[in-house]
User: What shape does this take?
Amino acid sequence: MGVGILVEDLNAWYGSTHTLQDINLHIPANHATALIGPSGCGKSTFVRCLNRMHETNPIARATGVVKMGDVDIYREASPVEIRRRVGMVFQRPNPFPTMSIYDNVISGLKLNGFRNRRVLDETVERSLRQAALWEEVKDDLKKKSGASLSGGQQQRMCIARALAVDPEVLLMDEPASALDPVSTSKIEDLIFQLKSQYTIVIVTHNMQQAARVAENTGFFLNGKLVEFDSTHKIFTNPRDKRTEDYITGRFG
Amino acid sequence: MSTKPIEIQPLGEPRKPSRVNVARRRAADHLVSGLAILATLVVLAPLVAILFYLVYKGASSLNVAFFTRIPAPVGEEGGGMANAIAGSGIILVLASLMGIPIGIAAGVYLSEFGNGRFLGNAIRFTADVLNGVPSIVMGIAIYSLVVKPQHHYSAFAGGIALAIMMIPTVTRTTEEMLATVPHAIREAALGLGVPKWRTAVSISLRTASPGIITGCMLAFARVAGETAPLLFTAFGNQFWSFKLNEPIAALPLQIFVYAISPYDEWHRLAWAGALVLIALIMVSVTLVRIFANRGMLKGGS
Amino acid sequence: MRAVRPAPSSAEQSTSLAAESPSVVRNFLNSRGSGRLADASFATLMLICASTIFLIVLFIFWILIHNSHLSLVAFGWKFFTREAWDPVSGDFGALPFIYGTLMTSLLALAMAVPLALGVAIFLTELCPRPLRAPISFLSELLAAIPSVVYGLWAVFVLVPLMRDTIGPFLAKTLGWTGFFEGPNFGVGLLTASIILAIMILPIISSLTRDIMTAVPNSQREAVLALGATRWEMIRIGVLRNSRIGIVGAVMLGLGRALGETMAVTMVIGNHPDISKSLFAPGYTLASVIANEFSEATGDLYYSALIEIGLALFLVTIVVNAIARLMVWAVTRGAPSRVS
Assistant: This one.
């Protein structure tokens, strides 16, 4: 169900800082693609450009072409339309504090005006099963607040929330960075299972994580995409010296 | 060139004044602490005195008639302020209906749209300044706008005057409460493709709603005791009135009229009215305090 | 719209549910519009509401000028320097009211500021922790008492007290200064100043407390580390760092005192006289409006009263604007509390 993403000459700025410079790459459909690099290298900015979240900051702007399937998202669609097709999971779990688990999961549908109760019920179950959270919460879906879950459960609920809108692309911005090892491994299992149905782009500072879940890996440094290749190639035989330095832990 | 006077003096002399100096500094320290405590006691004294007098004078005058009867003519015993209580209620509902939505919307603009922009800062500043405009000025401005062209005082005019006084408070509290909503929650909604207006209403406002509601109650409590803006708008009325385009009684107005009257019976009623007014205001302020202490947001990261 | 769509893999059991629903949800979401119109209208609506705050201030200004036109033309600037106030012959000047307003406000400040500073120092630096919350709660209650209730209390408690106890005492001890001469009826400038002081105290002290709390602890520690006593720490580490903000808080109190109406009207005596004695009855800008506005017969009389309102409006706006800027300069970053 996923679509491929084609990025051409993408440049992005925060104020006067040039955070992304001339990015070109093709992210294949229904695969997991990892983006690695030291902090501040622009990988987070890059994924935020893929669903136009970048521009929610008033001082930020971006130029270039991003094609999702055959839609040029910067010219042929509004930010709202794009974000509805793309699910996003953030660094820290960000449940809506006033909503129950049930309402949290289907918030993307309800807030966009979807009202069919039967489909909503089905969607909650499907998304929570996909996020491997169903068994843990099925008894107090409407009783418990989304904020009352543990951190790892909250993050899986946020993944379920992103899956509930049946997205074509799933963007994950360091989804496990705030979690404990057990929750992290659960989330990695999840990505592994989901990647056959969705195009997944995952930002991570953890190279083992990239090696475990992703078919392709891109290495960012100082706002530039240094190298993009199959994960196996990147981790065993990188073309660029800087990539080799990074993955062997010589810096960053 | 003997070194004697030089060597002995620095060792001996600076010590003596320093001992005096330390004593003086200590004394100053104690003096100031004492003065600060004294000041606090002096400040709290009138409050205690006012509250004591209110309860002492007011409670003895409160009875069922106060809440059920309208004012008795001069010289007659009894009578109450039922019409003034109802009138205050009507004016306050009118003021809230006009002032609270505008105030909240302005707060939403300041927090969600105007942040960091010149226009936002200018409006925030104007709101603070408007908060300081004397209420009597508000009264004569509304008189000139509404009452003078219509040739009669009205409950509606009173409502407008109080609404204008509510707006700055509601705006600033709404803005402050929205600022406590974590940015990550807004991002979560925007990331789901929820339009910005829907995010502002269903996520930001809803998350901040306990704080905003208490802010509105605070504004409500503040204007509930306002007298000056009602003098030339609602004007007051000795009888029942439920019409919006006629003069209407209000509790603070009635207290004022009775307080400066020469009759003991009316003074008694003024105290009772003040007690009721204060009770109303204190209950809301206390509620606000409780909510504020408990923290507005249950969750959020 | 979509690229090549591979059939969902049957390996995952969870896809059994996913297989049928995607189209419903996805079709629905794809059919929703861009929301641009709704977003733009919402932003515009919020902007309009926010702009009403501007409009209200402009409108008050305009309507006051418009309605005081007669008096502005008749007396010009001299209106503010003339002592006459004669509704019968139509001769108006605002000097007695300006005198009464300034006199009562400044006296009130003179009484309130030292006390408010003391309270703020006590609350931020000296007060035992468990007492802090109840005392600041009490001072918030003090700020929430309506003006008319202060007036009521003043009429029945403060006025007799002034007439029978404090007044005679002041006349005996300080009578030689000339400020406490003449008959003392209990009502007058001094009584009005005292009730004003009581009313503005909570405002000044709670703002000052906020400003002093905003001084970082490192400043206090730096001074203490030099061997300073607590008072020196407060003076050098706290007061010196927050003086602009404190001046701002005092000016906010002044703004409130200048415009205060009901309590003052009830105890000032309401007589347009300029007298050195603080026992003498006076009149303020706000109280003359409160007392005479509804019986103002004749356009010039009405217009003169509106002009007094205009003067009050402009003065309080300027005082408040300066005060806000000063308070903002200090508490910048920390959102200012609703005062």
Chain C has one domain: 69-331. The two ends of chain C are 56 Å apart (CA to CA). Residues 69-331 of chain C form a domain with the MetI-like fold fold (CATH 1.10.3720.10). The first strand of chain C starts at residue 85 and ends at 86.
